[in-house]
Amino acid sequence: MIVNITLPDKTTYDITIEQLNNIYFDTKVVVVTNPTVSGFHLDYLKNKLNAKELSIVTIPDGEQFKNMSTIDMILDHCFEHRLDRKSLLIAFGGGVIGDMTGFAASIYQRGISFVQIPTTLLSQVDASVGGKTGINNKYGKNLVGAFHQPKAVYIDPYFLSTLPKREFGAGVAEIIKMAVTFNKDFFLWLEQNDLTKEENIKIAIKKSVETKANVVIKDEKENGIRAALNYGHTFGHVIENETNYNTYLHGEAVGIGMIMANALAVKLELMNKDEEKRVKILLEKYDIPTSYKIKDIEDFYSHFFLDKKSLDNKIKFILPKSIGDCLITNEVKKEDVIEVLKGFN
Amino acid sequence: MIVNITLPDKTTYDITIEQLNNIYFDTKVVVVTNPTVSGFHLDYLKNKLNAKELSIVTIPDGEQFKNMSTIDMILDHCFEHRLDRKSLLIAFGGGVIGDMTGFAASIYQRGISFVQIPTTLLSQVDASVGGKTGINNKYGKNLVGAFHQPKAVYIDPYFLSTLPKREFGAGVAEIIKMAVTFNKDFFLWLEQNDLTKEENIKIAIKKSVETKANVVIKDEKENGIRAALNYGHTFGHVIENETNYNTYLHGEAVGIGMIMANALAVKLELMNKDEEKRVKILLEKYDIPTSYKIKDIEDFYSHFFLDKKSLDNKIKFILPKSIGDCLITNEVKKEDVIEVLKGFN
Question: CA neighbours within 13 Å on the CB side: how many for B73?
Answer without folding.
Answer: 18
